[in-house]
Structure formats: structure tokens, C-alpha cells
Task: inverse folding
């Protein structure tokens, strides 16, 4: 069945409506009343209020299509067929209503029934937790799958510390031997994975409480939380090699062809640039529409980093001027049926994106001038750009370290990697002690310092450092 991305989203919601689910609207990407997350990163993230009992939903059966941002996948984007930084998760949820058997039966019916997706059953594979005999029996007996298509994986257990947790079961689609990479090239595919078996749907059976003393007890009311990637389903339905070749992305790729004068599909390296740019402009457009803005910290820093990364990749396509802003209308156009707010705010989004791009481009110009003078001084002598020099380019002129390396390589120069890392480390230590000094002055106002520096941000600092290296 040939269906557009929009039709698939509608069909999913329609199916679960028919099964008495209530539709929960796609929530903004910026979490509301939740400091534990930088971005909404899954369907369940916006439904915590129901899962933890703060709010009793009108109907314990819920369906949604939730826009999500995941920065942990950034290095995969453009290089795997299936990862985005912004994507849509289709999900059905049960708050103490149905459990394992019904959630498995529903997922299977949606995927395989001729009235719905109509996927060929023989192409679906299942993973379960090794000790989840209930799940095994349901897939084996009720659904009737042969044993060799049910794979036991130790990692299939959802546990994020204290709170509800439980085993999960995932559904994979066999895309066929053409998708088998003989020797996954770690450089080219940082995931280093074989994408023949495409993960499409995750069913989480939350049945235990992870107690503060580390023990697990059964939950009085068991919940279901599922998530399926819309773009991945679209790639299967439309029988195209990657998510980017679906109608959810093609108009964007065409627009990039227009702007750059390069063709998508000519070579892998260029295609990666097409993919990264189209991915990142979606993320930034939606995030700005939902109230985030580029800046030097938190969410804003993620946006800044995504835009800069896209601009860097645009060099691969020979693009010189600001152009990302000119893709925003296409994002709005593709998505307006379900997400009208991108179109409504498109003038503002374009302005934000254009300013940020121009700012970065002038940073780059300045950096290149400095680089050239360093090059002139070492070219015929050591042939090495020292750690201090690379660090100064990066720290004082905002010139991405990766670019210094690329330029140096082109010019037959070496960069002292270790020296650069040493300088980074020193700077981190300086920042740390500066922060400590600040903290000790703030002890009397604990509430204030808690407010400005939420404790949940501890993991973020290291992400920030890594992210800077990436730029
Ligand atoms: P993968 O192993 O492919 O990275 P995941 O196991 O991290 O996926 P889940 O956390 O289980 O993903 O999310 C549920 C579903 O959401 C996935 O099965 C997939 O269909 C979709 N999904 C997850 N991450 C992404 C992403 N970065 N881009 C597009 N779709 C995604
Ligand atoms: Mg993942
Ligand atoms: Mg996975
Ligand atoms: Mg998964």
C-alpha cells in the first residue's frame, strides 16, 4: 500500500481511536513542568503526569503522535538510514488498563492486517527480555510466531532508576539482504550497525516499581508505553532506502538541490550533507516554533550547535551564503497538516535562523584568516599546528576544531591533537574552579542557586563539552 507520511500518522491514530483510545495532542518540544529533560524525546515523556498518577486521564487508553528531539543520535544522523535529531513517535498507552497481551495483539493487528498497514508477517522479527516468559508465550502461542523469530536480548528492560520499569519487546522489519553491510565501516556508520533489521516499534511493559533501596516490587497497576518511528515506517511503506527518501523529506532535499546546484544521490559524502542539513533544519524550525532560541547554554546551545553543524556540512555542497533560513518554508509546508505552528511562525523562525547563520559565517571568515596566518608561519618549518594555536582558534575565534583539522589535512599539515586536548582540559579546570568560587559565595541563597543550576543538569555538562568538540 502506498501511503504518505501524513496518511500513516492518521491511520495510526485512527486505528487506536477505533480501539477506544483517546487522542492526546502532540505536546511542545520544550518540556512543561519537567526539569529532568532538555527536550521531549519520546511519546511517554509528555504523559508522565498520567503514569505517575498526578493526573487521572479521562480515558486510560491513549494514542499520540509526539514530536521528539534526541541529541544522543546526532552522530548517526546522515550516516544511518534511520536516525534523526527530530522525529515523530507514534504511540499507544495504557494507564493501568490493558497489559502485555492486548498491547502485543494491537501492535500486530495494526502492522499486519490488510485493513491497516498490511505488512508481510514473515518479514517481522521480535525481541524480548530473556526472562519474560509471558511475552514469549504471547508471541509464540497467541500470535503464532515460530521460535526462531523471537530473539531474547538481555538489554530489553526499561529502567531509569527509581520508579516504574519493566521488560520491553521490540518489533523489527527485515529490509532484505541489500541492507546488509558486509563490513560496517565504523567511520562512515558511527552506529557501526547492520540496518537490514530495522527497529520499528518498542513496546514497554511497565510492571515493576524500582524502589529506592534497589529492590523491585510488582506494580498494583501495570502500564503500557509504546513508540514507533513514523519516518521509519514511511521508508518501509514507500519502499525507499532511508527515512530521508520518503515524502517527509524529499521536498526538502529538492529544495537543497535548488539552493546548492548539487544533486542528491550522486555520492555518499554529498548525500550525508543533504541528510544532515534537512534533519537539522527540521529540528531547529520545530524547536523555535515551540519557543526555544539559539544561545550559549541548555536548549539554546543545542540549537546553535545543530545550525552550525548544518552550515559546516553545507560547505560539502559548495554553499557559501546563509541558506538554512530558506528551507524553513519547505519544512512548514510538509508538516502543516498536523503541525500548523511552524507555518504560523515561519517569518520569525526564518529571521532567527538567518541571523544565527550569518553570525556563524562571519566567525568562520575570521577563523580562516587566522588559520591562514598560522599556516604561513608553520608551512615551511615544523609543519605542525600546535595545541595552543588550535585551541586559540577554537576558543578565541570560535573556529571549530574539526575545521582546523580538515583545513590542515588539505594543506598537508599536522595538528597536535594531544596538545589541543590538553588545552581543553586546562580550560575545563579553569571553568570548574571559577564555578566553585561562584558557588561558595552563593551558599546563603540555596534556593536561588538551585534554581539557576538545576541538579538535573549534571549530565549535561559533559554533553556540552563533547558537543563543543564536535563542532
Ligand atoms: P535505535 O536502536 O534504532 O537507535 P532506539 O532503541 O534508541 O532506536 P526507542 O527509544 O526504542 O529507540 O524509541 C522507540 C522508536 O522510536 C524506535 O523503535 C524508532 O522507531 C523510533 N526512533 C528512536 N530514535 C529515533 C531517531 N533518532 N530517529 C528516528 N526514529 C527514532
Ligand atoms: Mg537510539
Ligand atoms: Mg534500539
Ligand atoms: Mg528501542
Result:
Amino acid at each position: 500500500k502506498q501511503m504518505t507520511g501524513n496518511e500513516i500518522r492518521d491511520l495510526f491514530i485512527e486505528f487506536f481511536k477505533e480501539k477506544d483510545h483517546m487522542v492526546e495532542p502532540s505536546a511542545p518540544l520544550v518540556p512543561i513542568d519537567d526539569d529532568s529533560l532538555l527536550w521531549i524525546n519520546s511519546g511517554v515523556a509528555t504523559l508522565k503526569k498520567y503514569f505517575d498518577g498526578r493526573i487521572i486521564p479521562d480515558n486510560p487508553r491513549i494514542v499520540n503522535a509526539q514530536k521528539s528531539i534526541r541529541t544522543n543520535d546526532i552522530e548517526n544522523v546522515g550516516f544511518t538510514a534511520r536516525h534523526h535529531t527530530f522525529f515523530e513517535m507514534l504511540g499507544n498507552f495504557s494507564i493501568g488498563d490493558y497489559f502485555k497481551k492486548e498491547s502485543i495483539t494491537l501492535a500486530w493487528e495494526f502492522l499486519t492486517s490488510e485493513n491497516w498497514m498490511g505488512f508481510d508477517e514473515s518479514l517481522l522479527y521480535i525481541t524480548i527480555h530473556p526472562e519474560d516468559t509471558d511475552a514469549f508465550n504471547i508471541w509464540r502461542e497467541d500470535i503464532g510466531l515460530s521460535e526462531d523469530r523471537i530473539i531474547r536480548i538481555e538489554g530489553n528492560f526499561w529502567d531509569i532508576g527509581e520508579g516504574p520499569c519493566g521488560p520491553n519487546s521490540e518489533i523489527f522489519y527485515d529490509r532484505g539482504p541489500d541492507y546488509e553491510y558486509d563490513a560496517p565501516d565504523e567511520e562512515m556508520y558511527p552506529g557501526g550497525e547492520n540496518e537490514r533489521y530495522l527497529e520499528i516499534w518498542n513496546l514497554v511493559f511497565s510492571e515493576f516499581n524500582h524502589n529506592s533501596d534497589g529492590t523491585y516490587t510488582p506494580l498494583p497497576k501495570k502500564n503500557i508505553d509504546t513508540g514507533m518511528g513514523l519516518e521509519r515506517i514511511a521508508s518501509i511503506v514507500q519502499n525507499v532506502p532511508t527515512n530521508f527518501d520518503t515524502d517527509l523529506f524529499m521536498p526538502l532535499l529538492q529544495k537543497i538541490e535548488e539552493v546548492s546546484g548539487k544533486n542528491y544521490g550522486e555520492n555518499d559524502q554529498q548525500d550525508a550533507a543533504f541528510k544532515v542539513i534537512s534533519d537539522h533544519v527540521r529540528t531547529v524550525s520545530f524547536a523555535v516554533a515551540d519557543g526555544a532560541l539559539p544561545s550559549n547554554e541548555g536548549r539554546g546551545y543545542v540549537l546553535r550547535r545543530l545550525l552550525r553543524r548544518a552550515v559546516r556540512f553545507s560547505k560539502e555542497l559548495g554553499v557559501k551564503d546563509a541558506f538554512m533560513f530558506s528551507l524553513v518554508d519547505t519544512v512548514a509546508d510538509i508538516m502543516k497538516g498536523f503541525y500548523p505552528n511552524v507555518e504560523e511562525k515561519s517569518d520569525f523562525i526564518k529571521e532567527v535562523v538567518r541571523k544565527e547563520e550569518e553570525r556563524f559565517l562571519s566567525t568562520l571568515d575570521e577563523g580562516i584568516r587566522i588559520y591562514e596566518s598560522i599556516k604561513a608561519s608553520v608551512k615551511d618549518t615544523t609543519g605542525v599546528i600546535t595545541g595552543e594555536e588550535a585551541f586559540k582558534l577554537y576558543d578565541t575565534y570560535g573556529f571549530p576544531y574539526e575545521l582546523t583539522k580538515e583545513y590542515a589535512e588539505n594543506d598537508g599539515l599536522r595538528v597536535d591533537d594531544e596538545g589541543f586536548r590538553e588545552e581543553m582540559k586546562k580550560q575545563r579546570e579553569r571553568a570548574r574552579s571559577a564555578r566553585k568560587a561562584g558557588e561558595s559565595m552563593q551558599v546563603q541563597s540555596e534556593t536561588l542557586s538551585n534554581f539557576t543550576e538545576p541538579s538535573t543538569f549534571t549530565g549535561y555538562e559533559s554533553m556540552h563539552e563533547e558537543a563543543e568538540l564536535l563542532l
Remarks:
- The mean pLDDT is 88.
- The two ends are 42 Å apart (CA to CA).
- The longest helix spans residues 346-378.
